Amino acid sequence: MLSRRNFLTAAVGVAAAGALAACAKDDAGSSASPGGSGGKAISLGFSQVGSESGWRTANSDSVKEAAKEAGYTLKFSDAQQKQENQISAIRSYIAQKVDVIAFSPVVVTGWDAVLKEAKAAKIPVVLTDRSVETSDESLYVTLVGSDFTAEGERAAVILEKVLATAGHKGEVKIAQLEGTTGAAPAIERAKGFKTVMDRQHKNDWKIVVSQTGDFTRAGGKQVMAAFLQSNPDINVLFAHNDDMAIGAIQAIEAAGMKPGKDILIVSIDGVKDGFVAMSEGKINAIVECNPLLGPQLMEVVKKVHAGEKVDRWIKTEESDYTQDQAKSALPNRKY
């Protein structure tokens, strides 16, 4: 068992707990069965980005269910997509002397100070879903999550298949709905997609417009409506998640066009609503990003708590889907 700082001032504890209560939704819970040695349950502080999408809801549910199954004491907070809320939550977990801290960071940068506080308190930190940039890589133990750059590359590759299936000829004019500005999936999915595009389609593919929809349906709808006003000749949409794609579908239909035909759509995630839209012919392909990280995370937490070595990056297994696979795959979607 990793040791922790024996003493933190009452002022720090009260301030951190107060800030968390004021800024973020908190859901502290525990399980009756012991998750640690000596009959004492492992205490895990988990700070979630928010609840901006179906993917995120499934991710939160997976973490909660897996923690209960493992017998861990879970202290869960929803940052409502605000970094300051996550930092307050992490400081609260430090003050509460949890055994392990895990969080899915809102953005990539700005974590050094609070992670140094966790390190000073000898509380190991595990990243889930998203990465961070730090001045000291020892500030966190491991990342449990997807390869977002690879997802962007896979989206470009599957778009090639979509265009071939549609019999598309001529220039490909792409609108890109980006995720939250500064978030790892937004940065890396865009990078991966552009890498393949520049390498293989420099002369025939062009991203004509790109803007954040903040990973939300409302954002996707609003931004896509603006895209169609400024660039009515768009013929492909690459959305960084299904929820933005679904919002964009509403804007495309409101403009009197047919999503999946007039505008070919490739998105990332693989939530059930995305598969419904794909089975209806409104999304052409989906690159899966698996949110069910709970069981994998709990196993990592157990090893980290015991002082065992783990891989620096523990990647999730994922697949890609096209319209012809949607109806058969839909009944088996768990999120």
Helices, strands, pairings?
Layout: H1 10-23, E1 25-29, E2 43-48, H2 54-70, E3 73-78, H3 83-95, E4 100-103, H4 112-120, E5 125-128, E6 142-145, H5 148-166, E7 172-178, H6 184-200, E8 205-212, H7 217-230, E9 236-239, H8 242-254, E10 264-269, H9 272-279, E11 285-288, H10 294-305, E12 313-315, E13 320-322, H11 323-329
Parallel strand pairs: 2-3, 2-4, 4-5, 5-6, 6-12, 7-8, 7-9, 9-10, 10-11
Antiparallel strand pairs: 1-3, 11-13
- Outline type: elongated
Whole-number mean pLDDT: 90
Strands in their spatial order, largest beta sheet: 1-3-2-4-5-6-12
Total helical elements: 11
Alpha carbon gyration radius: 21 Å
Structure description:
- By secondary structure, the protein is an alpha/beta fold.
- The protein has eleven helices and 13 strands.
- The strands form two sheets. A seven-stranded mixed sheet has the order 1-3-2-4-5-6-12, sandwiched between helices. Strands 8-7-9-10-11-13 form a six-stranded mixed sheet, with helices on both faces.
- α1 (10-23) runs antiparallel to α3, α3 runs parallel beside α4 (112-120) and α9 packs across α11.
- The protein is elongated and about 65 Å long.
